[in-house]
Sequence to fold (176 residues):
Amino acid sequence: MLAAGVWIRLKAFMLDYIGIVLYLLMVAVLTVFIFPEIQKLFQSSPGIAQLTGFLLVTLPISLYFAVFDAGHFRGTFGKKKMNLQVVGRDGKGIGIVRSFIRVALKFLPWELSHFLVYRLIRTEEESIPLSLAIIGGSIYGLMILYITTAFFFETEAFILRFLERDKSDKNSVIPL
Fold:
């Protein structure tokens, strides 16, 4: 099965992003006008603020990608519009566990950046503490690595292929 190139996958993601923006607008309306008390959760400890953001934003969006990329659906709205399917090497839809792992890897830099932001806005020092600077550099490193591999290994996401390879076979090679 031939994998899609980076540009068609980007177009599919941009179509999905329209839905994400609409969802974020709905969350904004709910938290500002209908349930304004939710805003207080973002002003409490960094852990509570991050958990609230995770439950309102990251988790629902991650679930969208994980559920629709798995099994029966084989792709999100954007992927379907671009005639893409998420399948395993056997040509069948991937399972929900594999789909969740893929989504977790893709959204890890996003959630780590939230971790960083919630701590930076509460920093009372004039300069950024070294620990937060290291975390920030690591986050950008992960994002750059992920995006770069999409361009250099255009057939599919190299990092995901590396993590999904058959670890029981000592001679397994990552196909390029």
Notes: Residues 169-176 have pLDDT under 50 and may be disordered.
